[in-house]
Amino acid sequence: MFIHQRIFTSDNGILTDVSIDLNDHIGGTANIELEPVNDFLYIASELPFNSRFFKGSTYNTTPTNIIVEYWTGRQTGWVTAVDVIDQTEGFTKDGYIRFNIPYVKRKSWVRENESSSVSGVGYEADVYSKYWARISIDTSLDVGTSLSFIGHLFSKDADLFSYYPDLRNTGLMAAWETGKTNWTEQAMVAAGVILRDLRRRNILQTRAGFGLMDIEMLQDASSHKTAHIIYGGLGDSFASQRDSALVEYKTAVDLVYYNTDKSGDGVLSGAERKVSTSFMRR
User: Fold this and answer.
1) What CATH number is associated with residue 50?
2) Domain-embedded: residue 218
3) Residue 58: strand, helix, or coil
4) Which of 180, 200, 203, 279 has the greatest CB tally within 10 Å of its CB?
């Protein structure tokens, strides 16, 4: 889904490109057996960002503190982000990692023309015109700790069930897929649909939705789009529920404000919080 996001792991300076494995929620996994000091998880994007959803494949068992840094150029190097919220609790579960740029250093996150200029990345990445962030930890992750996706997820099952309690039914999950226990995959598909819809309406002007800065604003739209996808996959007997969910989605996604980072500095300014969709549409 995030085809223009690049992701690398660095094991004691040895760089591995895991972009293909972690940009799509279907099929791929990548080990992230990070150790303190010398190991990093790098994310390179078209624009600065303040959040990413991390879906695990094999989870770490003991919580650890994470450090988020962003690249400010060769003179100042890596700068530590602030207000870090780690919902994964050290990659022990799925969740968002969120952060902010220090107030006094706003607009210091720079687009690096070549990855060879990024300390710790160098010539191996061969990536151009990207903003770089990296994640490290203060306690070693378990051997075998791995991820299956880094991107966006705008709603959880609990949000979905608040609108559509019938989808809590394990029989419906089994009808969709044997052994299914949640609707997370459908919510990920819904996130991709929402990003495409927002790009189509010129609300997001980048290819991967990197300008989104307030993901909670899309929670309702995601719940309805997820339900629309689920009911659509359950067959004609759920046609009325499918059509109703689509109507609700179209209403929910038509927000007055989306809180997008139009200036591309990684900070949501007061003016950007007040930009309406009518202003951003063509």
Assistant:
1) 2.60.120
2) yes
3) strand
4) 203
The residue from 132, 150, 168 where one domain ends is 150
Distance CA 236, CA 270 (A): 46
1 within some domain: no
- Domain count within the chain: 2
Average pLDDT of the residues in 41-66? 94
Please give the Cα distance from 166 to 115 (Å, whole number).
49
- pLDDT, tens digit, 9 for 90 and up, residues 104-138: 666 788 999 999 999 999 888 889 999 999 999 99
Mean pLDDT calculated for residue range 22-40: 91
Q: Are residues 146 and 158 in the same domain?
A: no
> CA–CA separation, 146 vs 123, rounded Å?
25
Which range of residues forms the domain containing residue 79? 6-150
Q: What are the DSSP calls for 154-213, one per residue?
A: ---HHHHHHH-GGGG-HHHHHHHSTT----HHHHHHHHHHHHHHHHHTTS--STT-TTB-
Per-residue pLDDT for 1 more than 60?
A: no
With H, G, I as helix, E, B as strand and everything else as coil, classify residue 229: helix
